[in-house]
Design brief:
alpha/beta, eight-stranded parallel β-sheet, about 15% strand, disordered N terminus
Length: about 280
């Protein structure tokens, strides 16, 4: 029966990497200090698991810089740069000023903007400021035809309002939360929908139901590492290699083999981020 997490975990554990496209973890935070002791081993584990690349997602000035440094060191890693809604906002935010340093001449350049969005769970920044900073990043991305990695928490309607305000923007609904509002937007406007390890949780049937509705060419998978480890390793630190378990669960939901789904996910991540996840990472 579609959506049974125990089956997906079993399939993930036994899946062979031979004969399938590499998977891509489209959202992780490998610069966190929780990875400092064994980051090289984690990168090696990606390859061993058949994960050919990952997007290291920035959330503020310091993390954008660390993400860029990781992408310079490891060719299989790409990075994004942005300002998260729960981080400290400058008094006067300019998307050109804040993002231009990364997108105008950085080597390698970021592959996306974000993560950015609206978060009403944490009382960090007033909603109006969140809206203005988010919309400014959406407009910057739209003007440059770059994908946006969108964060939303307890703010579906507010996030949707901002997305509708910049119809030329495109990108990813990161760590999709099952929102009917945002799913309808994604279906209407052709955004990518990314599922994380919580897709495998026993009580996450609404996510598995949503995953059935997303067109195959708009699906992505991620870990959000170190957060949201899949069910088989729940409570532990998530890492990019764990994206195989989420992909296996998603394949089960969609009635596909892991190899069949991996081929689609690979194409989607390549098109979304403009990346050829080849041997040289370029």
């Amino acid at each position: 029966m579609p959506g049974r997490p125990a089956e997906s975990e079993s399939r993930a554990q036994g899946a062979s990497q031979a004969g399938r496209a590499p998977l891509v973890d489209t959202h992780c935070h490998l610069y966190f200090d929780r990875f400092d002791a064994d980051r090289d081993a984690i990168i090696a584990a990606m390859a061993a698991a058949g994960v050919g690349g990952a997007v290291v997602v920035g959330i503020d000035d310091a993390s954008n810089q660390r993400a860029a440094a990781l992408a310079q060191k490891y060719p299989q890693l790409k990075y994004s740069a942005g300002l998260h809604p729960t981080d400290q906002f400058p008094t006067h935010f300019s998307a050109d000023g804040y993002l231009g340093r990364w997108f105008d001449g950085s080597v390698p350049p970021p592959v996306a903007i974000g993560e950015c969005g609206i978060d009403l769970h944490w009382d960090t920044n007033p909603l109006e400021r969140q809206r203005s900073v988010f919309i400014a990043q959406l407009e910057y991305a739209a003007a440059r035809n770059l994908p946006v990695i969108v964060h939303t928490r307890e703010a579906d309607a507010e996030t949707l309002e901002c997305l509708r305000a910049v119809p030329a923007a495109r990108g990813v609904l990161h760590c999709f939360n099952g929102s009917a509002l945002l799913l309808q937007f994604a279906l209407e406007c052709g955004w990518y929908v990314s599922f994380a390890g919580n897709l495998t949780y026993p009580k996450a049937q609404e996510l598995r139901d949503a995953a059935l509705k997303v067109p195959l060419d708009r699906l992505l998978v991620e870990t959000d590492a170190p957060f949201l480890a899949p069910q088989a390793v729940r409570g532990q630190r998530a890492e990019p290699a764990h994206v195989v378990q989420t992909a296996a669960a998603l394949a089960l939901v969609r009635g596909l083999s892991l190899a069949e789904l991996a081929a689609e996910l690979y194409k989607n991540s390549s098109v979304c981020f403009g990346v050829n996840w080849g041997a040289d990472g370029r």
